[in-house]
Protein backbone atom coordinates (compact mmCIF):
# COMPACT_ATOMS: atom_id res chain seq x y z
CA UNK A 1 0.00 0.00 0.00
CA UNK A 2 1.39 3.40 -0.92
CA UNK A 3 1.35 6.09 1.74
CA UNK A 4 -0.74 9.22 1.18
CA UNK A 5 0.80 12.67 1.21
CA UNK A 6 1.11 13.81 4.84
CA UNK A 7 -0.97 16.95 4.27
CA UNK A 8 -3.86 15.15 2.57
CA UNK A 9 -7.04 14.20 4.48
CA UNK A 10 -7.24 10.40 4.62
CA UNK A 11 -8.01 7.44 6.79
CA UNK A 12 -4.34 7.44 7.77
CA UNK A 13 -5.01 10.51 9.94
CA UNK A 14 -7.77 8.59 11.64
CA UNK A 15 -5.36 5.70 12.26
CA UNK A 16 -2.99 8.10 14.02
CA UNK A 17 -5.74 9.65 16.11
CA UNK A 18 -7.12 6.25 17.09
CA UNK A 19 -3.75 5.02 18.31
CA UNK A 20 -3.04 8.34 20.05
CA UNK A 21 -6.40 8.27 21.84
CA UNK A 22 -5.83 4.73 23.09
CA UNK A 23 -2.33 5.59 24.30
CA UNK A 24 -3.46 8.75 26.07
CA UNK A 25 -6.33 6.88 27.73
CA UNK A 26 -3.77 4.41 29.08
CA UNK A 27 -1.69 7.26 30.52
CA UNK A 28 1.11 6.87 27.96
CA UNK A 29 1.26 10.03 25.82
CA UNK A 30 4.07 8.81 23.55
CA UNK A 31 3.45 5.06 23.31
CA UNK A 32 1.15 5.46 20.32
CA UNK A 33 4.06 6.09 17.98
CA UNK A 34 5.25 2.51 18.40
CA UNK A 35 1.77 0.98 18.20
CA UNK A 36 1.02 2.95 15.03
CA UNK A 37 4.29 1.98 13.32
CA UNK A 38 3.85 -1.65 14.38
CA UNK A 39 0.27 -1.72 13.07
CA UNK A 40 1.44 -0.15 9.82
CA UNK A 41 4.14 -2.76 9.40
CA UNK A 42 1.48 -5.45 9.90
CA UNK A 43 -0.71 -3.86 7.21
CA UNK A 44 -3.32 -2.72 9.74
CA UNK A 45 -2.77 1.04 9.60
CA UNK A 46 -1.03 3.77 7.62
CA UNK A 47 1.40 6.28 9.10
CA UNK A 48 0.31 9.58 7.50
CA UNK A 49 3.78 11.13 7.45
CA UNK A 50 5.56 8.05 6.12
CA UNK A 51 6.30 9.21 2.58
CA UNK A 52 9.35 8.86 0.36
CA UNK A 53 10.27 12.51 -0.14
CA UNK A 54 11.89 14.65 2.56
CA UNK A 55 9.83 17.52 3.90
CA UNK A 56 9.13 20.14 1.26
CA UNK A 57 9.65 22.87 3.85
CA UNK A 58 13.04 21.42 4.82
CA UNK A 59 14.15 21.29 1.19
CA UNK A 60 12.98 24.86 0.64
CA UNK A 61 15.27 26.10 3.42
CA UNK A 62 18.39 25.46 1.34
CA UNK A 63 20.59 24.03 4.09
CA UNK A 64 24.23 25.08 3.80
CA UNK A 65 26.95 22.50 3.32
CA UNK A 66 27.36 20.54 6.53
CA UNK A 67 30.90 19.22 6.13
CA UNK A 68 32.49 18.98 9.56
CA UNK A 69 29.21 19.65 11.36
CA UNK A 70 26.94 17.38 13.42
CA UNK A 71 23.16 17.22 13.01
CA UNK A 72 20.41 15.69 15.13
CA UNK A 73 16.98 14.78 13.74
CA UNK A 74 14.27 14.64 16.40
CA UNK A 75 11.60 11.96 15.93
CA UNK A 76 13.07 10.79 12.64
CA UNK A 77 10.55 8.04 11.78
CA UNK A 78 11.78 5.94 8.83
CA UNK A 79 14.45 8.50 8.01
CA UNK A 80 13.35 10.63 5.07
CA UNK A 81 14.54 13.94 6.56
CA UNK A 82 17.61 12.39 8.18
CA UNK A 83 18.80 11.07 4.84
CA UNK A 84 18.31 14.48 3.25
CA UNK A 85 20.30 16.25 5.98
CA UNK A 86 23.07 13.66 5.67
CA UNK A 87 23.17 14.24 1.91
CA UNK A 88 24.07 17.86 2.68
CA UNK A 89 27.25 16.65 4.36
CA UNK A 90 26.25 16.65 8.04
CA UNK A 91 27.37 13.84 10.34
CA UNK A 92 23.80 12.94 11.21
CA UNK A 93 22.26 11.22 14.22
CA UNK A 94 18.53 10.52 14.06
CA UNK A 95 16.35 9.16 16.82
CA UNK A 96 12.81 8.01 17.43
CA UNK A 97 11.00 6.60 20.44
CA UNK A 98 9.56 3.88 18.20
CA UNK A 99 11.86 0.87 17.78
CA UNK A 100 9.82 -0.19 14.74
CA UNK A 101 10.42 3.21 13.09
CA UNK A 102 14.16 2.87 13.65
CA UNK A 103 14.11 -0.68 12.26
CA UNK A 104 12.34 0.63 9.16
CA UNK A 105 14.88 3.44 8.75
CA UNK A 106 17.77 1.01 8.88
CA UNK A 107 16.08 -1.42 6.49
CA UNK A 108 15.20 1.25 3.94
CA UNK A 109 18.64 2.85 4.03
CA UNK A 110 21.06 -0.06 4.53
CA UNK A 111 24.09 1.88 3.31
CA UNK A 112 23.20 5.10 5.10
CA UNK A 113 25.83 7.18 6.92
CA UNK A 114 23.11 8.20 9.42
CA UNK A 115 23.34 6.84 12.96
CA UNK A 116 19.80 5.72 13.81
CA UNK A 117 19.03 5.41 17.53
CA UNK A 118 16.01 4.47 19.65
CA UNK A 119 15.72 7.24 22.24
CA UNK A 120 13.14 9.17 24.23
CA UNK A 121 12.99 12.94 23.76
CA UNK A 122 11.89 13.28 27.38
CA UNK A 123 14.89 11.29 28.63
CA UNK A 124 17.66 11.75 26.03
CA UNK A 125 21.30 10.69 26.34
CA UNK A 126 23.23 13.15 28.49
CA UNK A 127 25.99 13.28 25.87
CA UNK A 128 23.62 14.93 23.41
CA UNK A 129 23.29 18.11 25.45
CA UNK A 130 24.76 21.03 23.48
CA UNK A 131 26.17 18.43 21.11
CA UNK A 132 24.86 19.34 17.64
CA UNK A 133 25.49 22.14 15.17
CA UNK A 134 22.10 21.61 13.53
CA UNK A 135 18.95 20.30 15.22
CA UNK A 136 15.78 19.64 13.24
CA UNK A 137 12.45 19.38 15.03
CA UNK A 138 9.86 18.61 12.38
CA UNK A 139 6.25 18.03 13.42
CA UNK A 140 6.96 16.12 16.64
CA UNK A 141 5.95 18.53 19.40
CA UNK A 142 2.62 19.09 17.62
CA UNK A 143 1.91 15.37 18.15
CA UNK A 144 2.33 15.69 21.93
CA UNK A 145 -0.44 16.77 24.32
CA UNK A 146 0.09 20.14 25.96
CA UNK A 147 0.78 18.56 29.36
CA UNK A 148 4.19 17.26 28.27
CA UNK A 149 5.21 19.96 25.79
CA UNK A 150 6.69 22.00 28.63
CA UNK A 151 9.35 19.30 29.01
CA UNK A 152 9.78 18.49 25.31
CA UNK A 153 10.48 22.02 24.09
CA UNK A 154 13.49 22.81 26.33
CA UNK A 155 14.84 19.29 25.77
CA UNK A 156 15.03 20.02 22.03
CA UNK A 157 16.63 23.41 22.61
CA UNK A 158 19.21 21.78 24.85
CA UNK A 159 20.62 19.72 21.97
CA UNK A 160 22.00 22.81 20.19
CA UNK A 161 25.75 23.39 20.49
CA UNK A 162 27.31 26.83 20.93
CA UNK A 163 27.05 28.54 17.55
CA UNK A 164 24.52 25.93 16.41
CA UNK A 165 21.09 26.23 14.80
CA UNK A 166 17.66 24.84 15.63
CA UNK A 167 15.01 24.62 12.90
CA UNK A 168 11.41 23.96 13.93
CA UNK A 169 8.69 22.97 11.47
CA UNK A 170 5.24 22.77 13.04
CA UNK A 171 1.54 23.26 12.49
CA UNK A 172 0.14 26.71 13.28
CA UNK A 173 -3.42 25.78 12.30
CA UNK A 174 -5.18 22.66 11.10
CA UNK A 175 -8.55 21.82 9.66
CA UNK A 176 -9.46 20.14 12.94
CA UNK A 177 -8.86 23.10 15.24
CA UNK A 178 -12.58 23.67 15.72
CA UNK A 179 -13.18 20.51 17.75
CA UNK A 180 -9.73 20.10 19.26
CA UNK A 181 -9.27 16.54 18.05
CA UNK A 182 -5.80 15.48 17.12
CA UNK A 183 -2.95 14.90 16.67
CA UNK A 184 -1.73 17.23 15.39
CA UNK A 185 -2.36 19.90 18.00
CA UNK A 186 -1.04 23.19 16.54
CA UNK A 187 1.61 25.14 18.41
CA UNK A 188 0.77 28.60 19.69
CA UNK A 189 3.10 31.55 19.20
CA UNK A 190 3.97 31.36 22.90
CA UNK A 191 5.01 27.73 22.43
CA UNK A 192 7.15 28.67 19.44
CA UNK A 193 8.81 31.44 21.46
CA UNK A 194 9.46 28.98 24.30
CA UNK A 195 12.16 27.22 22.26
CA UNK A 196 14.37 30.29 22.87
CA UNK A 197 15.73 29.21 26.26
CA UNK A 198 19.14 28.50 27.78
CA UNK A 199 21.00 30.96 25.58
CA UNK A 200 19.16 30.04 22.39
CA UNK A 201 17.87 33.11 20.56
CA UNK A 202 15.14 33.36 17.98
CA UNK A 203 16.57 34.52 14.66
CA UNK A 204 13.35 34.48 12.64
CA UNK A 205 9.75 33.30 12.79
CA UNK A 206 7.96 32.67 9.53
CA UNK A 207 4.40 31.44 9.12
CA UNK A 208 4.04 29.59 5.83
CA UNK A 209 0.64 29.34 4.20
CA UNK A 210 -0.47 26.08 2.60
CA UNK A 211 -4.09 26.67 1.69
CA UNK A 212 -6.10 23.60 0.79
CA UNK A 213 -4.12 21.19 2.96
CA UNK A 214 -4.82 19.63 6.35
CA UNK A 215 -2.17 21.97 7.80
CA UNK A 216 -3.08 25.28 6.14
CA UNK A 217 -0.57 27.34 8.12
CA UNK A 218 2.81 26.26 9.47
CA UNK A 219 5.43 27.75 11.73
CA UNK A 220 9.00 27.88 10.47
CA UNK A 221 11.18 29.52 13.14
CA UNK A 222 14.98 29.41 13.32
CA UNK A 223 17.06 29.74 16.49
CA UNK A 224 20.79 30.01 17.20
CA UNK A 225 22.94 29.67 20.27
Can you describe this structure?
The protein has a 7-stranded mixed β-sheet. By secondary structure, it is an alpha/beta fold. Helix content is 29%, strand content 24%. The protein starts with 10 loop residues before the first helix and ends with a strand. It has a single domain (55-224), classed as Vaccinia Virus protein VP39 (Rossmann fold).
Distance between the termini: 43 Å
Looking at CATH, which topology would you report? Rossmann fold
Uncertain residue segments: 1-10
The number of helical segments is: 7
Oligomeric state of the chains in view? single chain
Radius of gyration: 16 Å
Q: What is the averaged pLDDT score?
A: 89
Largest sheet: 7 strands, mixed
Helix content: 25-40%
Q: How do the strands line up in the largest sheet?
A: 3-2-1-4-5-7-6
CATH class: Alpha Beta
The CATH superfamily turns out to be Vaccinia Virus protein VP39
- CATH architecture, by name, is 3-Layer(aba) Sandwich
Domain Methyltransferase: 72-164
InterPro entries: Methyltransf_25 (IPR041698), SAM-dependent_MTases_sf (IPR029063), TPMT (IPR008854)
GO biological process, one term: methylation
Organism: Actinoplanes couchii
Helix and strand layout, with pairings?
Layout: H1 11-25, H2 32-41, H3 56-60, E1 70-74, H4 80-87, E2 91-96, H5 99-108, E3 115-118, E4 132-138, H6 146-157, E5 160-173, H7 189-193, E6 201-209, E7 217-224
Parallel strand pairs: 1-2, 1-4, 2-3, 4-5
Antiparallel strand pairs: 5-7, 6-7
